[in-house]
Specification:
The chain is 41% helix and 16% strand. The chain is α/β, with parallel strands linked by helices. Helix 5 packs across helix 6 and helix 6 packs across helix 7. The radius of gyration is 22 Å and the shape is globular.
Length: 424
């Protein structure tokens, strides 16, 4: 059995899709003749906690932990609330930022390259160097963001010559929030240099989207494999659907992820259709920025909102399965074409229609069409969006609201792990 050392920042009790990706890989890798050994921080400052995920960690797994120095703890002395929202990725638009927020973003962007976990690189290399030699590790896998973990893999590769796989759950220099970090020109170049070095030193690159694959192929000749996120069979349960015509968004709604075209469309339907007005409910399950809440107020939608806040992964599954319609909203920009939210795959097995908004030619658009699990709209498709929501509402009234998915098996966690195991 081959031994794979997996270096990850996010591990239970952390919440969110980043931890679920490798938690599920570790769960299934032994079935494909790979022994996973996890290396994670001992005292991390996770922005989201989901204790339910800790129950999925088997006592039989080897999980190594070492302490990490977290600058977000120090930043909390300046502003605990703002430090926490920035660590979650919730960054206000430029005109709405306070002086403290601007200062914190400048420090984060220019003094912590590639990210705020860079201080973990040196002690991790020192600890893992001897472990790799003593326990005959066959391959090292780093997963980012945070991309500083790739620099651990890079150093181990250079010092020991160990086989190294770099897994990118998100792009590096082209991800949307980079523009908000107030990077100097020299900092931008440092990021690009590090990205180029990682991509050209790793033996194998894994990405979660086809757009990221295209982007990275312009930088490196190294082999790149697309292994998306996925769903676990255990996640698909049956629940009684809402009595209301509920549209549910599960996950963070950041400042830029704020589609006025959708809010305007919902307001029009409420004004024009009394039955819709009586039946409609908007569920927001996850962190929501103040900018989104304010826009919803402007469109007089406050009375229709069920603002649930963050829930555990298990609770989010219940919301997905009982909702009438599932919303997937992405920022309308070139950078977000490569973003495939982990929730998409659990949406697809919930047997509920999906309505997605985002940029043209995104990977989400391709997957939705391929699997026949929902409809994808651009930010100028107001008329078609309105027609589809009304069509779904009529289906809801008749009790005929359902989906007819095709080809979902390849997105199961077990099938995806099988693909990973062949690379190991």
């Amino acid at each position: 059995m081959r031994k794979a050392l997996i270096i990850t920042y996010y591990w239970p009790p952390a919440g969110g899709p980043g931890v679920q990706r490798w938690l599920k890989f570790v769960k299934y890798l032994p079935e494909f003749n790979v022994e996973p050994i996890v290396y994670a921080p001992d005292n991390p400052s996770y922005p989201i906690i989901d204790s339910s995920l800790s129950k999925e960690v088997s006592e039989q797994w080897t999980v190594l932990k070492q302490p990490i120095k977290e600058p977000y703890r120090l930043a909390g002395f300046l502003s605990k609330r703002q430090s926490k929202t920035i660590s979650k990725g919730i960054i206000k638009e430029k005109g709405n930022q306070s002086l403290i927020e601007k200062f914190m973003l400048y420090i984060r962007g220019n003094f912590y390259i590639p990210d705020a976990r860079k201080s973990w690189i040196k002690p991790s290399v020192e600890y893992l160097s001897s472990y790799i030699c003593n326990y005959n590790i066959d391959v090292v896998i780093t997963t980012g963001p945070p991309h500083s973990l790739h620099l651990i893999g890079l150093t181990l590769k250079e010092q020991l010559g160990v086989r190294w796989i770099a897994d990118f759950r998100d792009p590096w220099t082209t991800i949307g929030y980079h523009k908000k970090l107030k990077l100097t020109n020299s900092s931008k170049e440092k990021h690009k240099d590090l990205e180029r070095k990682v991509l050209n030193t790793a033996d194998q690159i894994i990405v979660t989207s086809f757009n990221t694959e295209k982007e990275f192929k312009k930088i490196t000749p190294k082999p790149i494999e697309v292994i998306t996120n996925g769903y676990d069979y255990e996640s698909a349960g049956k629940f009684e659907t809402d009595k209301k015509f509920s549209l549910s968004h599960i996950g963070s709604l950041l400042s830029g992820r704020n589609p006025e075209i959708l809010w305007r469309t919902l307001k029009e339907l409420i004004d024009e259709n009394q039955d819709f007005k009586t039946s409609f409910q908007l569920n927001l399950v996850g962190s929501v920025s103040n900018e989104v809440i304010q826009i919803l107020k402007q469109y007089n939608l406050s009375d229709y909102i069920n603002n649930v806040g963050y829930v555990s992964h298990n609770e989010s599954i219940k919301f997905k399965n009982k909702s009438q319609i599932l919303l997937l909203i992405e920022i309308d920009s070139e950078e977000t074409k490569a973003i495939i939210p982990g929730k998409l795959f659990e949406y697809m097995v919930s047997n509920r229609p999906i309505i997605a908004l985002g940029p043209k030619d995104s990977d989400v658009e391709i997957i939705l069409k391929e699997t026949n699990t929902g409809n994808y709209f651009y930010y100028h498709d107001g008329i078609m969006l309105k027609e589809k929501i009304l069509e779904h509402f009529i289906g809801f009234q008749k009790g005929e609201l359902s989906t007819y998915p095709i080809g979902l098996k390849k997105y199961s966690r077990k099938e995806l792990t099988k693909k990973l195991a062949t690379l190991i």
